[in-house]
Design brief:
InterPro entries: Indigdn_synthA-like, PsuG. With about 325 residues, this protein is of the alpha/beta class. It contains 13 helices and 13 strands. Helices cover about 50% and strands about 15% of the residues. The strands form two sheets. Strands 1, 2, 3, 4, 5, 6, 7, 8, 9, 12 and 13 form an eleven-stranded mixed β-sheet that branches.
Length: about 325
Amino acid sequence: MLRQTMMALRIRRALAAAPRRGISSGGVVCSAEVRAALDRRGPVVALESTIITHGMPYPRNLEVARAVEARVRAGGAVPATVAVLDGKLRVGLSDAELERVAVAGDRGAAVKCSRRDLADVASRSANDGALVGATTVAGTAVAAHLAGVEVFATGGIGGVSADLVELGRTPILVVCAGVKSILDVPKTLEVLETQGVAVIGYGTDDLAAFFAARSSDNNKINRAPLRYDDAAGVAGWLAKNAELGLASGAVLAVPNPAPMDGDAIDGAIAAALEAAAARGVSGKDATPFLLAKLEEVTGGASLEANVALVLNNNAARAALRSPS
């Protein structure tokens, strides 16, 4: 944590002179704290909300959401959890609003919001206070870019989805624990390459795989195409990406600090995938089902590993926060 905090300070200085990107939007509402930080070019860290509503059970999800925001603050940044509430795309939530999102997830009143869903859920939630839009990687990337925030993180990415396409057209850095090991890692890498998204291993040549520090396919270790070992290197990438005017983003894969045993997690994943196939679970319902099944199969160990990687990603993200 100390090393990551020091990295945060170096990144902050390295990016201090970078011009703010993003565009203004009347439908995007920043909290007073987030807006004040952006106006003074202070560090703001964007946080997604799907991990709250669909990634963990209540009240663990609320506990982790609060812990994540506290970790960001400890790193000297302002947390900006993103969600759709009352007809607006919100960037930065109060504690009461954070609890509202967590409870909505528990009650099944939260809708996953990718780019395509934002307008629909914003329209419907304007007249339905019980409806909450929980932003995915893609939805959070859109909101962060509109607000002028360049860095955010999540637990992990993966699967051939709108998230990967979004990273190819939005200049955002996603800090995560790599590709979700419950999904097709080589295929995810292939799609990211096709979309022009940089994939960076942080301090390692191996591609982090969510629960595990690395992954393999047919006994071949999956490698990260790029590697940076410190904050200065990542800051240099961010600066040059902006200088070149590239519209694409990047994935910074940070290994899980509490990885599970490779054989154990592989066996649990196989059991979870078999259960999903037997029940016909697919699409947007697949990830929450698989995570819940993994928690069951591993006796809760996968949930604790998930919590550890989320907190670690946010510590790293505080180090790579936007100086907007």
